[in-house]
Amino acid sequence: MKILLTGGAGYIGSHTAVELIEAGHELVVIDNLSNSSVKSLRRVEAITQRDIVFHRVNLADLSGVREVFSSESIDAVIHFAGLKSVNTSLRDPIRYYQNNVGSTLILLQVMAEFGVHKLVFSSSATVYGIPQELPVSETAGVGFGITSPYGRSKSMIEQILTDASLAEPKLQIAILRYFNPIGAHVSGRIGEDPRNTPSNLLPYVSQVAIGLRKKVAVYGQQYPTTDGTGVRDYIHVVDLAHGHLRALDHLRSGVSTYNLGTGRGYSVLEVIEAFSRVSGRDIPLEIVAARSGDVAMSFADVEKAKRELAWVAERTLDDACRDVWRWQLQNPRGYDD
Ligand code: NAD
Ligand code: UFG
User: Fold this and answer.
1) What's the pLDDT score for residue 145?
2) What residues are labeled active site?
3) Burial of 63 (0-12, 13-18, 19+ CB in 10 A)
4) CA–CA gap between residue 106 and residue 222 (Å, rounded)
5) Of 91, 152, 251, 305, which shows the fewest CB atoms inside 10 Å?
6) What is the CATH number of the domain that holds 250?
7) In angstroms, rounded to a whole number, what is the distance separating the alpha carbons of residues 152 and 192?
8) How many CA atoms lie within 13 A of 141 on its CB side?
9) pLDDT score recorded for residue 143
10) Is 60 part of any domain?
11) Cβ < 6 Å from ligand 2: which residues?
12) Could you check whether the bond before residue 135 is cis, i.e. omega within 30 degrees of 0?
């Protein structure tokens, strides 16, 4: 298939691009590079020895998106594009709704105009708010207790996709709720490249390990978990990428929603310990106040993806730490090196 990746230059998009190309698909990428560099796509081309068609277009630009659809014969879309910082979304909610919700509406409009009906959407476990059950399954309530405009934008988009599919039976949509993506491609050529101070745990830990930052601030040790620190379901980005391939293969009429996680949780201290062991570096840490909006525990019920997509995460936390460390050592300043 010829697949359009919106936001394909980003962290998850670039890793998914490698796996899609290796599975024989042709790729077209739309990205405005607001949180990425075109170098990631050049590296994907180097890994796969194949070309990617790239359009530097803002997905909020209706005529720009139309031009791409009229110049390419698109079979399916994977919609990664979006702003993803929980903190920034609290400071600038309008921009988040405009960018995430607004550009999805434009994408849906243009897909309808060009008769493209297959869509895979990047959602997030954040739509579960404070999970009402653990492990949390796709049937759990969503939309309540979400603590940020970012999270609400994902929940709104899920609702919009459901409404759109009720009105247009030809639409085939998979909503993928990612848990905590970590890791990097095994080549060390592509990885996560935060533009500012990392807000996610793994990139921060990795920058401490290499000496770019002094110590990890652990956000709270008062949670009802084994060691008091927050527990998350960390999924290797290459496993996540494979989940997209399976979702594409299993698209069917209507909306199907899948958790993509490992089904097991690790605490912040366990993650730091694993990274320290794998990298052989000391990782100083300090327990500080809890971060507002964080939940104590989140991990996925992964049975639906296993049953319907024949997909399970195969890589371990240690694998992910090893791959992040290789990426960090080879690219101490990310794509700027
Ligand atoms: P990323 O920032 O690395 O990638 C997103 C890409 O979208 C970037 O390249 C950015 O430049 C592009 N983009 C943003 N707005 C755009 C617009 N209006 N037009 C064109 N391009 C635009 O983020 P990522 O980690 O690869 O995340 C991909 C998707 O997965 C996002 O939708 C994110 O919300 C979702 N997600 C990520 C995580 C995570 O922890 N990384 C967890 C759950 C869900
Ligand atoms: N943490 C620290 N110190 C840090 C960073 C994080 O202790 O410097 C802790 C957090 O408190 C949390 C855990 O590490 O317990 C993971 O935090 P992340 O920021 O890496 O991830 P979150 O679970 O908060 O959020 C991530 C994405 C969101 C997404 C959510 C659910 O950032 O976009 O997963 O998918 F919505």
Assistant:
1) 87
2) 150
3) exposed
4) 44
5) 91
6) 3.40.50.720
7) 24
8) 9
9) 77
10) yes
11) 84, 86, 124-126, 178-180, 199-201, 204, 216-219, 230, 232, 268, 291, 294
12) yes
Q: What's the pLDDT at 177?
A: 98
The per-residue pLDDT for 144 is 78
Are the C-beta atoms of 191 and 335 separated by less than 8 Å? Answer: no
Q: Give the pLDDT confidence score for residue 147 in this predicted structure.
A: 87
**318 found inside a domain:** no
Report the C-alpha gap between 6 and 34 in whole angstroms.
12
Residues with CB under 6 A from ligand 1: 7, 9-13, 30-36, 58-60, 80-84, 99, 103, 122, 124, 178, 180-181
Q: Is 67 inside a domain boundary?
A: yes
Q: What is the pTM of this model?
A: 0.98
Q: Looking at ligand 2, which atom is closest to the CA of residue 86? A: 33
Reported as a single tens digit per residue, the pLDDT across 137-196 is: 999 999 778 989 999 999 999 999 999 999 999 999 999 999 999 999 999 999 999 988
Residue found by looking up tokens 């979400």 in the block: 146
For residues 174 and 152, give the distance between their C-alpha atoms in angstroms, rounded to a whole number.
18
pLDDT digits (tens, 9 = 90+) for 73-82: 999 999 999 9
What ligand 1 atom has the least distance to the C-alpha of 150? 34
For residue 138, what are the domain limits? 2-183+234-262+300-313
Cα–ligand 1 centroid distance for 8 (angstroms): 8
In a domain, 144, yes or no: yes
Q: Would you say the C-alpha torsion 92, 100, 33, 328 has a positive or negative sign?
A: positive
Per DSSP, the three-state class of 50 is coil
pLDDT higher than 80, residue 9: yes
